[in-house]
Write a structure and sequence with these properties.
With about 190 residues, the chain is of the alpha+beta class. The protein has helices at about 1-5, 50-55, 70-80, 80-95, 105-115, 120-125, 135-150, 160-165, and strands at about 15-20, 25-30, 125-135, 170-175, 175-185. A three-stranded antiparallel sheet has the order 3-5-4. Strands 1-2 form a two-stranded antiparallel ribbon. The chain is elongated, with a radius of gyration of 24 Å.
């Protein structure tokens, strides 16, 4: 995903980008396209934040015909006028209403981001949310680090963890240090994690 960010291809970007043809002179351009990634595996995300959720949409291509139709190219050519009319109606609707997501794309994207959001998984597994609870930030990071390491994931820094957790819970400074409000660590079955 870093490569995509490095290209500067962002929705709504109007600022000029520079490029260079192989052994050619540099030139300026404005990105005016959607980047599609086709592959066998979904990309892993280190930070499935709201910005990434706005930019990345999964298109589930799940239809597999029981038997390939060798006559399909000829059948599509015979329906070319109808296909063109359908595409034009779609273009007119897009210009009038904008591009909206269908239910299948919304569901596939939500499922994908739920799989990628390790912090949400940690909260569900190791924490209890309640308005009158709190947990020390240092203890939360220690627990997170142990949990992430057990799964072979990079725990990152305490600063990054704290910033991510602040998207879910308020944080305040107390006499004993910083605490997250509205959440507490669950006790482990053996007493400690």
């Amino acid at each position: 995903m870093n490569a995509i960010r490095g290209m500067g291809v962002h929705h709504g970007t109007r600022a000029g980008r520079s490029g260079r043809a192989l052994r050619g002179d540099p030139f300026e351009f404005s990105p005016v396209f959607k980047l599609w990634i086709a592959g066998n595996h979904r990309p892993g995300l280190r930070n499935p934040d709201p910005a990434m959720r706005r930019r990345l949409h999964l298109l589930p291509l799940t239809f597999i015909p029981s038997k390939p139709d060798p006559e399909l190219p000829e059948a599509l050519k015979a329906e070319a006028a109808g296909i063109l009319a359908w595409a034009i109606r779609g273009c007119v609707a897009w210009q009038a209403q904008g591009l909206t997501q269908c239910a299948a794309v919304k569901a596939a994207s939500a499922e994908y981001f739920a799989e990628q959001d390790l912090l949400e998984e940690w909260i569900a597994e190791r924490c209890e949310t309640s308005p009158n609870k709190s947990m020390p930030a240092r203890a939360a990071f220690s627990n997170w680090k142990h949990w992430a390491t057990e799964r072979g994931e990079d725990a990152g820094t305490e600063k990054r963890f704290s910033a991510e957790l602040e998207r879910h819970f308020a944080k305040k400074r107390t006499m004993t240090g910083r605490e997250f409000l509205g959440v507490r660590l669950l006790p482990a079955e053996g007493g400690t994690w």
